[in-house]
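Example 4.3 (complexes with small molecules)
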Amino acid sequence: MLELKNITQVFHPGTVNENIALQDISLSIARGEFVTIIGSNGAGKSTLFNSISGTFLPTSGEVRLHDRNVTKEPEYKRAQHIGRIFQNPLLGTAGNMSLEDNMVMAMNKGFKGLKISLNTTLRDSFREQLVPLQMGLEYRLRDNVGLLSGGQRQALTLLMMVMSRPDLILLDEHTAALDPKNAEIVLELTLGYIRQYDITAMMITHNMHHAIAIGDRLLMMDKGEIILDIRGEEKRSLTVEKLVRKFQEIRKTELKNDEMLLS
Amino acid sequence: MIEGILVEGLLYAIMVLGVFITFRILDFPDLTVDGSFPLGAAIFASMVTAGADPWLAVSVALLGGVLAGLCTAAIHTYLKVPNLLAGILTMTMLWSINIRVMGNRPNLQLIRQSTILRNLVDVLGGGVGQEWVLLGFFVVLVLVIKILLDIFFHTDLGLTLGALGNNPQMVISSGVNPANLKFIGVGLSNGLVALSGAFSAQFLGFADVNLGQGIIIAGLASVMIGEFLLRSNRIFFLTLRVILGSILFRGIMYLGRYYGYYVGLTPNDLKLITGLLIIVSLIITQTKKAPGPRKKSGGPANA
Ligand SMILES: Nc1ncnc2c1ncn2[C@@H]1O[C@H](COP(=O)(O)OP(=O)(O)OP(=O)(O)O)[C@@H](O)[C@H]1O
Ligand SMILES: [Mg+2]
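Answer. The structure with magnesium ion bound is encoded below.
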């Protein structure tokens, strides 16, 4: 359903700051696949998501979604099919507005008309959908989202993303800013939704254990390239030791343990 | 005196609502206002002078304001010019346009022309005083505008517009083009400002190309004063406090005009007072806010 063809992303080309963030990346993701992505800081993981969601025009290459060339399509248009959650919980919701108003906006993607969607029926349905989060948010529909904790806010962002039934979701370390307990809760919710709605998902994480245990395909990025692509039986039998060894075979260097081997 | 302050406060409240939309809701500091306010006055004055129906003239004035706002939004969006500069560009061009609109004159007197306010006073002014008729009219007008705005900000489109200033990324994620929202918001804002200008021409009895000088600062001061009066996230209260802020601001200006005389202030000092009022408001809000990470402001760098 998603295909990247020779995507290259160069920042500040032709200057001293020239920075090749993505180098000739080709990648194909099938419907229903759940891909985890690991890699050290600056490896280009977020830039990969930016190129998929259309934040920047890639320097060269092609992005295809549902067999359609969307390389030049602006981010807001692609957002109709792609849901995205950032590490920063503030980016997914409008803090100056109530939960219900936020949910109305997320419900139907695309241009909004002069219709007043919010009514009692919709509020009831919002409450129903908030109950599984088990955070008591169903009683706080009229509270400003700015009053919620980071974990609550990220859980709400997750629900809001799922409400529009995206074809593909991009999760960029979306639990990294939360405390361990909330991170666990939000991750569980994420996995639950992905299973329940059979969503195609890509998840960046710095937690190697998660990357190995979760999903059915693992990508490792380094210096703008995808250096490992592991799936199927190989993925199921993967361990941290095997992964580290593989990295060393390819890069002929020691893997910097500090950031990759979290927890 | 009090009814005079109320009338002025309400008359300008229409403009302040516009300023509130750009500065507070869109986080788009729009300086077009200093040009679209006299544009509304100029369009109204020249149309009624040419014999047009005053209600038609008011509608065209509003439309002219919308166009001015669209112009600023277009400069900002298509030429990737910072919003402040885009507003200044339109405002500067409007100065010449306003003189053209008034038939190559810097001002236009409305001595005999039939205006909405004059007709109203003629019909109803006999029993009660003229000021009270005007007050009644502006209460109704401002209420209608306020309610229409409240309804608009409850629609799906209005909600999304409300999120833009706070979180542009979320607007994009919900599949909406932020540029379109800016067109709508800045257009709507300047429409209101021009409408306010058209009524101020009737109130003052003339239109003048310099009518807009300092309007943006007066609007901003009114918005900020209103923010001290009420705390809320409900649009009903947000627009209400804009109106109250405008009335209070006019009250302060009135005091400055009448009692300032005793301490040696002249009407020429009012702009200084307005500026100081804003600075004081800023200081109070800064000290009231607990220190902590602040949302990055969509200032001039946010082109
Ligand atoms: N908008 C930008 N302008 C210039 N350079 C950028 C931009 N975005 C990313 N880069 C650069 O591209 C490289 C890859 O960054 P990216 O954010 O994709 O890394 P990452 O793998 O997500 O890292 P992290 O784990 O720290 O989030 C970095 O060198 C970064 O400095
Ligand atoms: Mg990143």
